[in-house]
């Protein structure tokens, strides 16, 4: 093989891997929604269809933008990097259970006489979700270290990012996810979804504090950055 062809071959291989991950993600999403429809009593549960459309269309558009703007972040979010904190594996497992549980609560609510939330609140949820998606996309666009696990990325020359939304809060990605979580009950029109969503959001705040503590202790320059950008998650609050 010609040495000049190696970079191109590597790019093709990464693209294939990314496509496989996207297909597997879509397959898992379809399987999840099949289960939700069964619990809701049928496939005529339109908020779930709308939510699936949001995930596929809007989040798909976000991924395409990031693929052009910062493809490294998509590649590295698809794996567990070396040095991931052990406590983070536990956190991720609990988070997954909590969020999936909230979806099943919404489905159960829909199938057992729920749906008393005013329809006018659905657009409010959509606006909140879209604003959160814009925020997390902008954060991922400027931060090549935006991975799915907490670790100091010694293999990738980890450095402090202070541009874009990181100039306002230290963890804009978590702020966006909290906003998406709080938008979910509005999008599913389920009041009963709020208790598990509040617990899930609180669990995310725990991770924010743990990651911030890790970065202060182990990432050079982060303590100075934290002195400049005072708020971790919510401007003016925390």
Q: How can the largest sheet be summarized?
A: none
Average predicted confidence as pLDDT = 88
Reading the helices and strands in chain order gives HHHHHHHH
Distinct helical segment count = 8
CATH T-level topology: Four Helix Bundle (Hemerythrin (Met), subunit A)
How much strand content do the residues show? under 5%
In angstroms, what separates the terminal alpha carbons?
A: 55 Å
* Class from secondary-structure proportions: mainly alpha
CATH top-level class: Mainly Alpha
Radius of gyration: 19 Å
Low-confidence stretches: 1-6
Per DSSP E runs of 2 or more residues, the count of β-strands stands at 0
Integer tally of domains: 1
Tell me the CATH architecture. Answer: Up-down Bundle
Query: What fraction, in percent, of the residue positions are helical?
Result: 55-70%
Features:
238 residues, disordered N terminus, single chain, 0% strand, globular, mainly alpha
Summarize the entry for a quick read.
With 238 residues, the chain is mainly alpha-helical. It has helices spanning 6-40, 46-69, 71-77, 86-111, 121-142, 172-188, 194-218, 222-228. It has one domain (3-228): Up-down Bundle (Four Helix Bundle (Hemerythrin (Met), subunit A)), CATH 1.20.120.
């Amino acid at each position: 093989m010609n040495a000049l062809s190696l970079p191109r071959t590597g790019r093709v291989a990464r693209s294939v891997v990314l496509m496989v991950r996207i297909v597997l993600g879509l397959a898992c999403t379809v399987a999840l929604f099949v289960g939700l429809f069964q619990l809701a009593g049928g496939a005529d549960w339109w908020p779930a269809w709308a939510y699936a459309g949001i995930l596929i269309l809007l989040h798909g558009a976000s991924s395409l933008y990031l693929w052009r703007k910062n493809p490294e972040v998509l590649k590295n979010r698809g794996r567990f990097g070396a040095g991931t904190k052990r406590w983070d594996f536990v956190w991720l497992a609990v988070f997954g259970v909590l969020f999936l549980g909230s979806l099943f609560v919404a489905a159960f609510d829909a199938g057992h006489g729920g749906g008393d939330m005013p329809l006018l609140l659905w657009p409010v949820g959509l606006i909140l979700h879209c604003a959160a998606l814009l925020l997390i996309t902008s954060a991922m666009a400027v931060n090549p270290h935006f991975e799915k696990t907490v670790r100091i990325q010694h293999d990738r020359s980890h450095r402090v990012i202070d541009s874009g939304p990181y100039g306002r809060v230290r963890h804009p990605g978590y702020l966006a996810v909290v906003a998406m979580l709080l938008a979910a009950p509005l999008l599913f029109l389920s009041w009963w979804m709020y208790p598990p969503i509040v617990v899930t959001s609180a669990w995310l705040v725990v991770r924010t504090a743990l990651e911030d503590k890790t970065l202060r202790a182990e990432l050079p320059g982060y303590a100075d950055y934290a002195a400049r950008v005072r708020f971790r998650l919510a401007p003016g609050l925390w």
